Amino acid sequence: MKERIQEAVRRSPAGYTELRLRRVWSTAVLVRDRRIETATRGSDIGGLVRCCSPGTGWGGASFSGTERLDTEARRAHELSLASRSRVPVLLAPIAVRQFDAPSPLPDDPRDFPLTEARQRAESLAEALFATDRRIGSARILLRDEVVETWLATSEGSWIHALRPEVSIAILAVAEEDGNVERALGSFAARGGWRSASAVEQLVGSISTRVVERLHAAPVRPGRYTVVLDPAAAGTLVHRAVTHVARPALPGVDPDVLPMGTRVGPEILTVGDDPTAEGLRASAVCDDEGTVARRTTIIQNGVVVGHLQSRETAAATAQAPTGHARAGSLRGAPHPRASNSYLAQGEGSLDDLLQGTGTGVYISDLLACEAAGDQVTLRAGSARMIRSGRLAEPVKGVQIGASLLSLLGRVDAVAADFEWDTASSRCEDGGAGVVTVTNGAPHLRIVDVGIGEGMP
Amino acid sequence: MIGSILDSLAGRVTGADVVVKTDDTLSLAISPDGESRVMSSQFRTSHLRLLRDGRIGFASSTGADVAELIGHAMMSAASGEALPLLFPAAAPLPEVSTRTPQAAAADTSSLEYLARALGDRLLRSNRRVEVWAERSLGAIQVANSRAVWAGYDVTLAGVGAVVESIGAGWAPPLRVHCAAAALPTLLEVEALVAEVDQRLDPPIVALPGGFPREVPVCLAPRALGTFLGPLKAALTGRAALLGDSPLRGQLQQKVFNAAITLIDDPLASGRPGSRPIDDDGVPSRRLGLITAGYVTARLADLQVGASAGVPSTGHAWRFPGSSPRVGFTNLRMAPGAGSRSELLAGMGWGLWVADLEWGTGPNGISGAVTLKAPWAYLVQDGVVLGRLEGVVLSGNVFEALRGEVVVGNDAIWVSAQCLPSVVLRLTAYCNA
């Protein structure tokens, strides 16, 4: 394969040619209630050739299969000439790197029999129903995936990477006295099924949450001190900071985090680290062949960096950060977050709670959305904080605020940093879907409006 | 390929169906700075479903390895759902237009002409405009072990823009597009330009005192398409027939206002969801889902239908990399009597909402939604006073459609939905 790919790139008449081929092996098992609904295993192979030459725009050809790599490269070159771009493509320079993944995988999910995956899903469903009689419906989705990527460029970069991943997602529906509630949780890990041995704890946690919600009272709208658990805080920093921390892209997002802007207090430091060991989105190089590196976005409350591809880096006179990621098998790479983190501060959860009179503790986010400078959070699981202690569960907790107003009200960051193990993905319109991991410690924000209408 | 798959399965399985889809897409995008990029995408996906020892197996692939596809489907059947699936027999197919020669022949120059026609008309000194144009040419073949063997070609062509307003208050990027089997006409391009002007030109106004608890809201077709999301989900597949849809068990019941009539129409000429046969091999037909407020049908494919003990309605889809799904083809809402102007005038004081941002609601099962409305306009006695910033609409989709509803006669096609403006009552908040 290596020779065929490199030969197709060598033969391309374009000034710059980049060929990425990707093969994905995947398994999906879905058990609804106690009944198997789907058990499939499949593979998909395809890729993208991108070309540009001095004075031209991008031409690209995406394809399935591997039979016509030469033809696809020629087609991409022809399209770059046909684009009649009024602005040429400029790419920031990178060091040429050659990297070959070690193989075979030590814990290869492809070796895990489909029958065992089915049995595991069914036994998780049984375990969930056994936790509480009020759980009347459940969905268990087991997935595994091995992604093999080959990347060659006419500058001489060569990357061959192999990324295995497993995930389990569980939905529980509980009902009592006509009241129906749902809780959702997931676990994902890089590697094979040996990485997912402790997933039974997830069943217990989801069961507890859904049953608690049956009797949770709606939160009283008002302004509260809010403490986010590490998973919720990590989701917030991803969606509200790292997801938009890139040079303004036309039509994608406005420039909501301009460099040099103070967005929060000194204790706030946020970044993205694709080099973090063993996480699902970690990589040696990105999908343009740039060596991935840890990038600080907010340092002590001030925006100091953006995630860059070669193209955005050239446009803004910055260095590429190794965050160009393709959101699909055949998609073009765009600057995207990978492993987003909120750097740890000081103290423990108890310290944060003790400094809180009446507040709300959020331990699960159903949704965290951002549009422009507006952020909306919806809690799946929340408790009141009373006199510095966790108290009764509440539901209907929603926060809507401007990003600057929310980050500006951060008053404490604990020291209990952890990477989240949920099966998180980041969707970004036409740029597709990429896996992400978020990490954070407990985070406290003061004077936050909570309520149905989101003040 | 299909023949060799079915031949090699003969005698080894109870039944099987195969769908092969090819797609050749050419797209061109021009950035606000004038940078053009042209992308071509060509791929083929093969989907195989089989019934073996009473269990269903399924596999799909973009590769050409027939043996691997069959092997995966056999493996899937060994662990798959036990279901008495009956594959359909061959039947006459309805006539429907799914392809135009002009769209099939469109090249980079035709797309550039369309994109620049739209871009030039949209450009103002206070706007950044990105435009794109695209055409795709596809072929779908559907066959099964009971002699169904059908194929049809499709084209889909579209043009669209993302417009950013510079200065005078923040506005999210405004997205408009049109798509159909034929290349967009200049008239359709002009309609997009008019829509953008109509949305960007009004001044930003303040709302002293906030909203009362509920306000009349006129949802324009794009906004209505988003708003109907929970209703569409509640009418679809397993959730509707076996799951937690609020419409489960409501067949022939009057659930909505009598002004509401919804039809799924795969036979609409030249629309994105038009097709003569579904991906299970079932001939397409128009299906009344809500008729004068009564629930009259729910969407099913063969597999969901077999589970629920009802026939397929012909709504099976195969998409790359996923299991068989049930889905809409083209959704149409029957128009009412009033024009949009009459609808707005009839509201008195209220909101006109041109587009909505989808977001999960506090309880999606029940239809409860909270939707951001960055394109909401204050209306008084039919006059649009200006755009309001920070509007959030909240309510329950099912309850809103059950209550006071007025349907307009201004239905337009937005992708695979032909919808009019609709006035209903929702809770509104203004966060600005």
Helix content of chain B: 10-25%
User: Helices and strands of chain B: which structural class?
Assistant: alpha+beta
Mean pLDDT of chain A, nearest integer?
91
Give the termini separation of chain A.
Answer: 57 Å
Q: Which pair of chains forms the biggest interface, and how many residues does each contribute? A: A-B, 71 and 63 residues
Report the principal-axis shape of chain B.
Answer: globular
Number of helices of chain A: 8
Largest sheet properties of chain A: 8 strands, mixed
Helix tally of chain B equals 11
Shape of chain A: globular
Q: How much of the residues of chain A is beta strand, in percent?
A: 35-45%
Describe the strand arrangement of the main beta sheet of chain B, using strand numbers: 3-2-1-4-5-6
Bin the helical content of chain A: 10-25%
- For the secondary structure, the number of strands of chain B is 22
State which percent range the strand residues of chain B make up. Answer: 35-45%
Gyration radius of chain B (Cα, Å) is: 23 Å
Annotation keywords:
heterodimer, A: alpha+beta, seven-stranded mixed sheet, 19% helix, 41% strand, B: six-stranded mixed sheet, 11 helices
Q: How would you describe this protein?
A:
The complex is a heterodimer of chains A (455) and B (432). Chain A is an alpha+beta fold. In chain A, 19% of the residues lie in helices and 41% in strands. In chain A, helix 1 runs parallel beside helix 2 and helix 3 runs parallel beside helix 4. Chain A is globular and about 70 Å long. The mean pLDDT of chain A is 91. Chain B is of the alpha+beta class and 432 residues long. In chain B, the strands form 4 sheets. In chain B, strands 3-2-1-4-5-6 form a 6-stranded antiparallel sheet. Strand 3 of chain A pairs parallel with strand 2 of chain B, so a sheet runs across the interface.
